[in-house]
Specification:
The complex is a heterodimer of chains A (about 260) and B (about 800).
Chain A: E1 3-16, E2 19-32, E3 36-40, H1 47-54, E4 62-67, E5 70-71, H2 77-87, E6 88-91, H3 103-113, H4 121-134, H5 150-162, E7 168-172, H6 180-195, E8 199-203, H7 207-210, E9 215-220, E10 223-229, H8 239-252
Parallel strand pairs in A: 3-8, 3-9, 6-7, 7-8
Antiparallel strand pairs in A: 1-2, 1-4, 4-5, 9-10
Helix pairs in contact in A: 3-4, 3-5, 5-6
Chain B: H1 2-12, H2 14-42, H3 44-52, E1 57-62, H4 70-76, E2 80-91, E3 96-98, E4 101-102, E5 110-115, E6 138-142, H5 145-148, E7 156-161, E8 164-174, E9 186-191, H6 193-200, E10 209-217, H7 220-226, E11 233-238, H8 239-245, H9 247-281, H10 283-291, H11 296-331, H12 344-372, H13 375-380, H14 403-414, H15 416-443, H16 447-452, E12 460-462, H17 468-472, H18 477-490, E13 495-509, E14 512-520, E15 533-534, E16 542-546, H19 547-553, E17 560-565, E18 568-578, E19 587-590, E20 603-611, H20 617-631, E21 636-637, H21 639-647, H22 650-682, H23 684-692, H24 697-737, H25 750-773
Parallel strand pairs in B: 5-9, 6-8, 14-19, 16-18
Antiparallel strand pairs in B: 1-10, 1-11, 2-5, 2-10, 3-4, 3-7, 6-9, 7-8, 12-20, 12-21, 13-14, 13-17, 13-20, 15-18, 16-19, 17-18
Helix pairs in contact in B: 2-9, 2-11, 2-12, 2-22, 9-12, 9-15, 9-22, 11-12, 14-24, 15-22, 15-24, 15-25, 22-25, 24-25
Classes of the chains: A alpha/beta (about 260), B alpha+beta (about 800).
Chain lengths: ~260, ~800
């Protein structure tokens, strides 16, 4: 299967108060097309830094990241922006949106900026509406971001990440700020997207969310300490076994 | 504990705190300098006159060979408490040369030479020190003529009077309370007693002798009436009239007053906004503190302590910055006046303290919300809270605007309060410039002004070198005009030439009898002038008067008034009312048939030339240049040049306009930079999010810049709509002071007013916003994950 993301010897160092803080230490892994991978680990282990560095949102200290065969460390700022706009989707733990725009406008904004396809503005708007319908939030399209619940907002964030049909979605604790029901809905949406062919790399603390992924990477002190393969999620009936397998593995790692 | 929170807060929110500090500095600077300037300007002429030792009534006489005829009358008049007399010698700009050429661009009719030892009032140098000595071989001069003619301190000019020529060195400008205003129509040269004696002793210069009288009286009306028949008087006026000659300085100072008030308003509006803005930014922390049980008054005192610190530091810096800034503002108004007040330091300090007080009041008002907010309201901070009002008013899916333009416009309409404050501030700055430009353009050469000056439109206006002879009675107006006509015919450009003249005539109506200036021209039909009411005088016994004269005497159209012309008193009927800026609006116009042709006028205007072949403007300009060469003078002017020189204020107002423009541009840039910087600090999360989504830096910069462009465009439209009404509101009282009491039509230079100035303001806005918006590049996409 085609490799979408290849991370080799990735290092990230912050200097805080003249002290060197090595957040990522020679991290290497790869993500194949259509995979859904979870990154787990204790707080401060470097999970989010790995996600943002691997997506080119943050700079790396050394190593290399190749996205669809392109070394992103060699790309210019504008080229990285284009890559993020056209090929990547992002979901954050906090449902960040532009305050002055309605939900639909927030979703279609990246499409309006993208020159990936030559669709008309009306087509882009239609695509946004379709995505909202698919995610069950079409009735709140014209609402402001402060007029909807956290779960609806996060689904809008997923719709936004999907608007330019990205190759890969990077999600940083997408369910971290949600209640159990909303969290379940959002995870199911991600699984459905993955089933439709979108590659997903997500950071999570929630083993229930990670259990729906194909593979789980466990990161401690900036190193990938272990990796656990669960295989493709086959539906709710398989969840019990997947969770048990994952939890046992995590307990062995001292989770 | 609180101290630690404060320290941390100041360090962590460095940007917003610095922005607030800068606004406090600006406010304190504007407030201190402006309040000082307002006090200085309001008492400006009174302070100057007091320092100069001026009197209650003034006469300037042309004594000539008749000698002083006024002293005896003043001595005999019981209403006169005391009078002082300066002996002077008359000359004009044609007789002051450098390298054989006329040295001074001086539009006024006469220049008075005075020995410093004869001075009866105080004259001041540029540093406001009284001038008590003039070195032999040197001279000081009042007014702006030397400066405007490129004469510098140390330059030598040749003064000729009668048969005596002296080469004198220019020592500097004097502030002369009586003749120092350009509007007064005369200049004064202060000489050393020995140099003055050389001129005075020349018998051939005896005809140029004159006097200036300073009369102290409690009854100016009695003094006026006592000297009505004295034919030597070239000018007389009460204290209030002399004050009015400083109308130009008052306009300049008054415009600074408007600028100062605008600056105070702008700074407080911006300060109020910034404080509200920064406190809103702190709501999350306020919520956390409330949530953990810290009492409201403790939270409030924490922020009040922080803002008090910023206010005090800002006010101290602002106070010191106000000293040079205030002097810069006053500079243009203080060249001819001794301006000042005795409490600069105290007023400046009080103003700065007031700024601190007002800031604390703002803070008190803003922090009142702390009490009302529940912890959770504050913690939500508007990011995801459900209780905040609707923000988006436009739809990206429906708009035809490009995404960047849409985002910018949507941001503006989503936060109307903060952007409307900026719109008002920008519009205010632009309106100030527009109003001054309209006044300068009106004064600088409109036909409307020509009539207000008492003239009709002619092809050219010519002041002959021997024009002084008309006043000395050497030649008559008729002879003078015939001579010019013959010369023009000889040059192949036959023309009609006439001169507008002014005569002092006693006017009597009811109990009031006064010497009034009458305008008269033998060659111009009265119907050619513009009147506000009534019909032009049709015969010799009809006359027109200004509104101010009508009010002064209490007569109106149809009334019969006794006027003494050439020694003969007759009844004249008032048929029309007009406006004039001559003698600050206190004149009458006599019919062309009144026999004044052989009477020596008090003042004359330039000879007006109307070519017989009615040439086009280009030919007129060519002939003007030809005549300048022929007569060896620059005093051949077209109508615009004549008006500009006569009002003598267009350049000064234009200078004020330029100063206002520079100040406005600087204020706008400062506001734009500070506002954009605060927007970046406030919207860091949104900027990071947009970057994370893949939106390029340049588009974010474009969006941020475009928001200010929208504001500038709206303020431009607002200013254009308010430009003329505001010009009328501001300038009508000014022109009223100059004599045009019923308002005038303003000259609107459309490309300049609606093109150039809005474009300058827009350029300043774009430059300020663009270069500040570049700072958004420092926000990283990954910051989206680390936002508080």
């Amino acid at each position: 299967m085609e490799t979408i993301l290849e991370v080799k010897d990735l290092c990230k160092t912050y200097i805080i108060n003249k002290r060197q803080n090595n957040v990522l230490k020679n991290v290497s892994f790869s993500v194949a097309a259509g995979e859904m991978i979870a990154v787990m680990g204790p707080s401060g282990s470097g999970k989010s830094t790995l996600l943002y560095t691997a997506s080119g949102m943050d700079g790396m200290t050394s190593g290399s990241v190749s996205f669809k065969g392109r070394d992103i460390s060699k790309l210019k700022k504008d080229e990285l922006s284009e890559l993020r706009l056209d090929e990547m989707g992002f979901i954050f733990q906090q449902m960040y949106m532009l305050k002055n725009l309605s939900l639909l406008d927030n979703i279609i904004l990246p499409a309006m900026r993208s020159e990936k396809d030559h669709a008309s503005r009306a087509d882009k708007k239609r695509r946004g509406e379709e995505l909202m319908k698919k995610l069950g939030i079409s009735d709140i399209a014209d609402n402001d971001i402060n007029e909807v619940s956290g779960g609806q907002l996060q689904r809008a964030c997923i719709a936004r990440s999907m608007i330019n049909s990205p190759t890969m979605i990077f999600a940083d604790e997408p369910t971290g700020a949600l209640n159990r029901t909303s969290s379940e809905e959002v995870t199911d949406e991600l699984v459905r997207l993955n089933a439709e062919g979108t590659t997903i790399l997500l950071v999570t603390h929630d083993s229930h969310v990670a259990a729906k992924c194909d593979r789980v990477l466990y990161i401690v002190d900036g190193n990938i300490k272990a990796e656990h393969t669960l295989g493709k999620y086959k539906g709710p009936s398989s969840m019990r076994d997947r969770e048990r397998s994952l939890n046992n593995w995590l307990m062995d790692l001292g989770w | 504990m609180f101290l630690r929170i404060l320290k941390k807060d100041i360090r962590r929110k460095k940007t917003m705190n610095i922005i607030l500090l800068l606004f406090v500095i600006l406010s304190a600077m504007f407030a201190s300098s402006s309040v000082n300037n307002i006090i200085t300007i309001v008492g400006g002429t009174d302070y100057f006159f007091e320092q100069a030792g001026m009197a209650d009534y003034y006469f300037i006489t042309i004594d000539g060979k008749n000698g002083d005829t006024l002293s005896a009358k003043l001595e005999a008049e019981p209403a006169v408490n005391r009078f002082r007399r300066e002996s002077v010698l008359y000359t004009n700009a044609e007789k002051i040369t450098r390298d054989g050429k006329k040295a001074l661009e001086f539009s006024n009719s006469s220049i008075l030479l005075l020995s410093v030892d004869e001075a009866k009032i105080n004259y001041f140098d540029k540093d406001n020190d009284p001038l008590t000595e003039v070195p032999e071989g040197g001279f000081y001069m009042s007014g702006s003529a030397p400066e405007n003619s490129g004469i510098k301190v140390g330059d030598k000019l040749d003064f000729t009077l009668g048969g005596t020529t002296l080469s004198l060195e220019y020592k500097g400008r004097i502030k002369d309370a009586l003749l120092g205003s350009d509007f007064m129509g005369s200049g004064r040269v202060l000489l050393n007693a020995n140099d003055y004696a050389r001129f005075f002793g020349d018998p051939s210069a005896a005809g140029y002798r004159g006097s200036v009288f300073y009369v102290d009286t409690d009854d100016t009306k009695a003094v006026e009436e006592a000297v009505t028949e004295d034919t030597n008087i070239a000018f007389d006026g009460a204290h209030s009239v002399i004050k009015m000659t400083y109308v130009l300085e008052i306009i300049t100072a008054g415009s600074l007053l408007i600028v100062s008030i605008a600056l105070i308003l702008i700074s407080f509006v911006m300060l109020r906004f910034t404080i509200g803005f920064t406190i809103a930014e702190e709501f999350r922390e306020i919520g956390v503190m409330k949530a953990i049980g810290i009492k409201n008054r403790h939270i409030r005192s924490l922020y009040l302590a922080k803002y008090l610190g910023i206010a005090v530091i800002g006010a101290v810096i602002g106070y010191f910055a106000s000293i040079p800034f205030g002097a810069l503002l006053l500079e243009s108004a203080s060249k001819s006046m001794y301006l000042g007040n005795d409490s600069t330091v105290l007023i400046g300090a009080l103003s700065s303290i007031a700024v601190v007080g007002i800031i604390m009041l703002f803070c008190w008002g803003c922090t009142r919300r702390i009490k009302k907010l529940s912890p959770i309201d504050a913690v939500r901070n508007g990011q995801t809270g459900e209780r905040f009002k609707k923000r988006s008013f436009m739809n990206l899916g429906k708009t035809r605007l490009p995404a960047t333009g849409f985002l910018a416009v949507n941001d503006v309409v989503s936060a109307p309060k903060q952007y409307s404050i900026m719109t008002v501030v920008f519009a205010l700055c632009l309106l100030l410039v527009m109003v001054f430009a309209n006044i300068a353009n009106t004064l600088g050469g409109s036909d409307k002004m020509l009539f207000l000056l008492g003239n009709t439109k002619s092809d050219l206006y010519y002041t002959a070198k021997d024009a002084m002879d008309l006043l000395g009675g050497v030649t008559t107006i008729k002879e003078h005009c015939s001579g010019i006509e013959q010369e023009l015919a000889g040059l192949g450009m036959p023309a009609k030439v006439h001169i507008e003249a002014q005569y002092k005539v006693p006017v009597e109506f009811g109990d009031t009898r006064q010497n009034i200036t009458a305008l008269w021209s033998a060659e111009t039909d009265c119907s050619e002038y513009v009147y506000e009411r009534g019909t032009a005088p049709q015969c010799e016994t009809e006359f027109a008067a200004t509104t101010l004269i009508c009010e002064k005497f209490g007569f109106d159209i149809g009334d019969k008034v006794k006027i003494t012309v050439n020694g003969e008193t007759k009844e004249y009927q008032l048929t029309a009312v007009f406006q004039s800026m001559n003698q600050l609006g206190q004149v009458i116009r006599l019919h062309q048939d009144v026999p004044l042709g052989d009477v020596t006028p008090g003042t004359t205007f330039p000879a007006q030339i109307d070519f017989d072949d009615h040439p086009d403007a280009k030919t007129i300009e060519e002939r003007k240049e030809q005549l300048k060469k022929h007569w060896g003078t620059d005093k051949v002017q077209n109508a615009n040049e004549f008006v500009k020189e006569s009002t003598n204020s267009a350049d000064a107002i234009a200078a004020v306009k330029n100063l206002v423009l520079i100040i406005s541009v600087l204020i706008i840039i400062m506001i734009v930079v500070l506002m954009e910087r605060s927007f970046i600090a406030k919207e860091k999360s949104e900027i990071a999010l947009m970057k994370a989504l893949g939106i390029k830096d340049k588009l974010i910069v474009k969006q941020h810049t475009f928001r200010f462009v929208v504001v500038a465009a709206v303020s431009g439209i607002l200013s254009a709509a308010l430009c003329l009404p505001l010009t009328k509101l501001v300038a009508d009282p000014i022109f009223g002071m100059m004599g045009a009491s019923e308002g005038i039509g303003y000259e609107l230079n459309v490309p300049e007013i609606f093109g150039v100035y809005p474009a300058i303001i827009l350029a300043a806005v774009i430059a300020g916003a663009f270069f500040t918006a570049l700072y958004t590049r420092s926000v990283k996409a990954s910051d989206a994950a680390n936002i508080e």
